[in-house]
User: What shape does this take?
Amino acid sequence: MVPEQFAADPKRYDGRMQYRRCGRSGLDLPAISLGLWQNFGSVDAFETTYDRLMRPSLVLQAIRTLQDAGVEPDVWKVEGLDRRQDCEHVVATARRGGRNEVGCIVLGRNAERGRVLRWLQTAASVPGFIGFAIGRTTFWDAVAAYVAKQVTRQEAAWLIARRYREWAIVFEQARRSHAGAA
Assistant: This one.
């Protein structure tokens, strides 16, 4: 029996998400992202425990399974990880078996700003993490404010650009800081 907090969302195959066949295995994966949250429904009160104790090993397992099935992306999209050692394990797994040119990027998972900043700093300190794809945390509030007519289109664009620039600065500073320490 799967604990309720880790049960798959019963609506996961209702047509809301597009899937594509990948590799020799015939696996159908989401066309947009390999985020593991889809497999477990919504994030709940056990988020921190799940993120620290289960998600890192599930990410490694997913990467190995996909590689073994012939899925060979140049870049793995990985939801933010809290610990540097988990980022190191992800890169090592993504690059196993001579896949030395493969990189990883951080996904934001619509997390709050402070959490995304920590994930960016953590990942950027690990060679092999080459960037980020932070979507909703970057644009959601600005778009919502624009739709609610609280800001102009130009102001919303400025807010999105400012947030994205913040991510880029934090990522690059963390990368340079670690490179200088090495």
The two ends are 46 Å apart (CA to CA). The CA atoms of residues 114 and 120 lie 10 Å apart. The longest helix spans residues 153-181.
